[in-house]
């Protein structure tokens, strides 16, 4: 049912990508005089005077070992936001095509749609924050190119029912993008395992959350080889800098440390839920598969401002659709969580 050539923008199909110096020569040499770099080095302890690998092969090779996905099925970008933007620019004709989002959800799907002049169709989640598959199907037409699904979802924290996502994958002729930024904290299986089953599936992940590399901006997309080829064709030639590549590769050797942090985060999340539930201003705490919890309160604005005055910053989500009165609270270190609870215990 899925044919990439039917949904690819004609100008992208015919695009000749920029050919960089590092595309035209691969391998090692003793003298590089091809890229107009500074031959003397960098005014730093580490030299960054040479352009980085445009396809980040060393990082992809290590990710391949961890994720069980061939390097040719991996795209690396400047955060997941770059992958989002490239998918819009590759598959959505401005002023013609549309995409579907399922609010409440990650806000960049909408922002990037607006930047790229792509119409947005909003199909709210159900009251228990699950996909309304029938309503989504009712909003699909011949110009619908992408369905964006965040699972575990931001800001609600829950995972989407797997069967619902698979129904969309099996019956939609466009792309279904499953954003798994928080998958490391979830008991659910990653949809990466389904890449060979569904040619229209794109799975996004990140090193910003569980891996603790938010400052490096390393986003990942996993998809069929033909989709990844399109994304590499559209991306800037050197979209991930050398420092981010080197540090990401170093971090990816420390799986045990990350797994220990994940376990501690989940333990702390469970403690936070139990402690927050005791406060009379907490009306509900929604189930979470992420490193945060969504807490419905009697006065989100008042509590938020009170915490700010005490040097504690959470995210006020009360203006977000279906999140009225809710605060999104990231799970911190044990000391940070104790400070949060102690401060809230004095709120009146």
From TrEMBL:
PROSITE patterns noted in UniProt: AA_TRANSFER_CLASS_2
Sequence positions bearing N6-(pyridoxal phosphate)lysine: 209
Occurrences of domain Aminotransferase class I/classII large (ranges): 45-342
One term of GO molecular function: pyridoxal phosphate binding
Catalytic activity annotation: L-histidinol phosphate + 2-oxoglutarate = 3-(imidazol-4-yl)-2-oxopropyl phosphate + L-glutamate
Gene3D superfamilies per UniProt: Aspartate Aminotransferase, domain 1 (3.90.1150.10), Type I PLP-dependent aspartate aminotransferase-like (Major domain) (3.40.640.10)
EC number: 2.6.1.9
Keyword flag Mitochondrion: no
Swiss-Prot/TrEMBL cofactor(s): pyridoxal 5'-phosphate
Pathway field: Amino-acid biosynthesis; L-histidine biosynthesis; L-histidine from 5-phospho-alpha-D-ribose 1-diphosphate: step 7/9; Lipid metabolism
EC top class, as a word: transferase
GO biological process entries: L-histidine biosynthetic process
Keywords noted in UniProt: Amino-acid biosynthesis, Aminotransferase, Histidine biosynthesis, Pyridoxal phosphate, Transferase
Subunit structure, interactors included: Homodimer.
Family to which this protein belongs: Belongs to the class-II pyridoxal-phosphate-dependent aminotransferase family. Histidinol-phosphate aminotransferase subfamily.
Protein name: Histidinol-phosphate aminotransferase
């Amino acid at each position: 049912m899925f044919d990439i050539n039917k949904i690819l923008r004609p100008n992208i199909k015919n695009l000749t990508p920029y050919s960089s110096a590092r595309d035209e020569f691969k391998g090692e040499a003793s003298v590089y005089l091809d890229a107009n770099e500074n031959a003397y080095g960098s005014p730093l302890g580490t030299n960054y005077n040479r352009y980085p690998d445009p396809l980040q092969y060393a990082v992809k090779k290590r990710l391949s070992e961890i994720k069980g996905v061939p390097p040719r099925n991996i795209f690396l970008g400047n955060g997941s936001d770059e992958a989002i933007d490239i998918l819009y620019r590759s598959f959505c004709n401005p002023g013609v095509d549309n995409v579907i989002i399922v609010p409440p959800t990650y806000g960049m799907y909408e922002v990037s749609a607006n930047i790229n002049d792509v119409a947005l169709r909003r199909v709210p989640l159900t009251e228990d924050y699950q996909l309304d598959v029938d309503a989504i199907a009712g909003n699909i037409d011949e110009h619908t190119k992408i369905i964006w699904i965040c699972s575990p979802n931001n800001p609600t924290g829950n995972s989407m029912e797997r069967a619902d996502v698979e129904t969309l994958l099996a019956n939609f002729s466009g792309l279904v993008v499953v954003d798994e930024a928080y998958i490391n904290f979830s008991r659910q299986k990653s949809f990466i395992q389904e890449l060979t089953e569904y040619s229209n599936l794109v799975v996004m992940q990140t090193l910003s959350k569980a891996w603790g590399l938010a400052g490096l901006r390393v986003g990942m997309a996993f998809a069929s080889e033909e989709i990844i080829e399109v994304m590499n064709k559209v991306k800037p030639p050197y979209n991930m800098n050398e420092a981010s590549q080197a540090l990401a590769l170093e971090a990816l050797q420390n799986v045990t440390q990350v797994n220990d942090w994940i376990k501690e985060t989940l333990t702390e999340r469970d403690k936070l839920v139990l402690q927050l539930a005791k406060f009379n201003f907490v009306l509900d705490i929604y189930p979470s598969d992420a490193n945060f919890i969504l807490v419905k309160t009697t006065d989100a604005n008042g509590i938020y401002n009170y915490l700010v005055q005490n040097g504690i910053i959470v995210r006020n989500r009360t203006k977000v659709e279906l999140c009225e009165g809710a605060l999104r609270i990231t799970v911190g270190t044990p000391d940070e969580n104790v400070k949060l609870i102690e401060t809230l215990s004095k709120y009146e």
